Amino acid sequence: MMPPKGNLARSEAMAELNVLQHQILTAKQVGEWLKQAEQETLDDIEQANLREMRRHYNNAVLVPEALVEAKSLAGARCEHAWRQQRIANDWHGFAENLREVVKLSREEAAIRAQAAGISHYDALLNLYEPGTNSADLDRIFGDLKQWLPTLLQKVIAKQEMKPA
């Protein structure tokens, strides 16, 4: 674990690395390389890799460098503060730190949603589950809602019957 007084320097270093990574990924030349690669004859695995590279590139170019840096700094600040606030049971202090992280995430969601013509939630969901949207999740959780409560009641009833 990072010493408490080292957190600011570490947060700034991580933010700088995130910005550099973003700059490399979003360089114009990367887009040109991807276009060239898309003209090549590729096997299935190479096509899948290229598709993922394109997805990462397209996702990255949407987000301004300043937002990448701000999210990195806010996330590090929030995570470090959480370590102390959790011990002190300081939920109000944590909420203040988390508020900035949520604000920046909403900003990113708005950018992504506008570019894709989808909801903010679907725009962020697409980062982690490409091709999945909130309607898919509603269907999945709707199915679970039908049978899971009954199963949980049965499991709890069986657990109560067995001695501890």
Automatic annotation (TrEMBL):
Coiled-coil annotated residue ranges, if any: none
Family matches, as InterPro entries: Peptidase_M32_Taq (IPR001333)
Any GO MF annotation of the entry: metallocarboxypeptidase activity
GO biological process: proteolysis
Pfam family, one: Peptidase_M32
Superkingdom of origin organism: Bacteria
Keywords, comma-separated and alphabetical: Carboxypeptidase, Hydrolase, Protease
Name of this protein: Uncharacterized protein
Species for this entry: Yersinia enterocolitica W22703
Organism classification: Bacteria, Pseudomonadati, Pseudomonadota, Gammaproteobacteria, Enterobacterales
